[in-house]
Amino acid sequence: MKAMVLNSVCDLLKNRKPLELKDISVPVPGENDVLIKVSTCGVCHTELDEIEGRTPPPEYPVVPGHQAVGTIIDTGNKVTSRKAGERVGVAWIFSACGVCSRCMSGEDNLCTEFKATGRDADGGYAEYMTVHANYAFPIPNTFTDLEAAPLLCAGAIGYRSIRLTEMKNGDSLGLTGFGASGHLVLKMARYMYPDSGIYVFARSEKEREFALEIGAEWAGDNSDNPPCKLDNIIDTTPVWKPVVEAMKGLVPGGRLVINAIRKEDADKDYLLKIDYPEHLWMEKEIKSVANVASRDVSEFLEIAAEIPIKPEYQVYDLEEANIALLELKERKIRGAKVLRIT
């Protein structure tokens, strides 16, 4: 099969083609696995973190990609929950132990044996992939394969972020950064909390225009002051400055949820500018999002089909994965980016 393969950590802006198109063997499913013929796979900022070493794979080479959609063509001899011919998706959660207290409570994203798709195991930048049957999620008929791919990470992790804010209808919500996850969170929040105002902070004027176009109450730069203090803010940026700026904009007791697996070091000195009275006083909270639980994926897909959420996306062929990644790095974004595999 054909696959785009990452062979080592590198600087994406210097090595503008970090992934290599190669012919590799089609994987063989284990007794509890399914073999999927991949049709589409979303492109995520976490792939940049893998390529540039902020969350490197444990070994190389590896096939990235954790928003894969396709059809099951074979199953292991112990699989009873899935069958050949089903259309499924694979998200960031590749596997967990299934027996620890975290897994048993539905928080398998916090399992100490958590493995990530496309980092700890080969992912969806390929014509075929395998995954444990428990982590192959049925895709609602509402969505095409191209529409479904961004929902598996940008959407599911956005859903987890909203859950972690613990917001109520009428509470205000800020979104810092407005890429694939941000635009899906906005659409989701408008449905789940119809009386809540949504305020978007983004560096790009095009991203701000896009946010207003799909229902934001207000949109400004990361350092701009919103019209009011906000009850909750979700940060999806790769850097620290927007985090510090966001803390200023929270109401007393407000919560900032950081939806990023890693932060870049470029502006880490900005953390030294945290002023306790201005940024943290009055019981403001900061909470991180760690991975995504399997229930987040399945619950979100149901909600997304009910609304329905139709993501904005740009399509690239598998061989153009490096182009999509570079555009993501350079903030050339409108919605999500999706690879067409087959």
Fold blueprint:
Blueprint: E1 2-6, E2 19-23, E3 33-43, H1 45-51, E4 68-75, E5 87-90, E6 93-95, H2 101-104, E7 115-116, E8 128-132, E9 137-138, H3 145-165, E10 173-176, H4 180-192, E11 198-201, H5 205-213, E12 218-220, E13 230-235, H6 241-248, E14 250-258, H7 276-280, E15 285-288, H8 294-306, E16 313-317, H9 321-329, E17 336-340
Parallel strand pairs: 10-11, 10-13, 11-12, 13-14, 14-15, 16-17
Antiparallel strand pairs: 1-2, 3-4, 3-8, 3-17, 4-5, 5-9, 6-7
Question: Nutshell version of this structure?
Answer:
The protein is an alpha/beta fold.
Describe the structure.
With 342 residues, the chain is of the alpha/beta class. The protein has two domains: 2-138 and 312-340, Medium-chain alcohol dehydrogenases, catalytic domain (Quinone Oxidoreductase, Chain A, domain 1), CATH 3.90.180; 155-288, Rossmann fold (3-Layer(aba) Sandwich). Helix content is 26%, strand content 25%. It is built from nine helices and 17 strands. It has helices spanning 45-51, 101-104, 145-165, 180-192, 205-213, 241-248, 276-280, 294-306, 321-329, and strands at residues 2-6, 19-23, 33-43, 68-75, 87-90, 93-95, 115-116, 128-132, 137-138, 173-176, 198-201, 218-220, 230-235, 250-258, 285-288, 313-317, 336-340. The strands form four sheets. Strands 3, 4, 5, 8, 9, 16 and 17 form a seven-stranded mixed sheet that branches. Strand 11, helix 5 and strand 12 form a beta-alpha-beta unit. Helix 3 packs across helix 4 (180-192) and helix 3 packs across helix 8. The longest helix is centred in the middle third of the chain and has 21 residues, at 145-165. It is globular and about 60 Å long. The termini are close together.
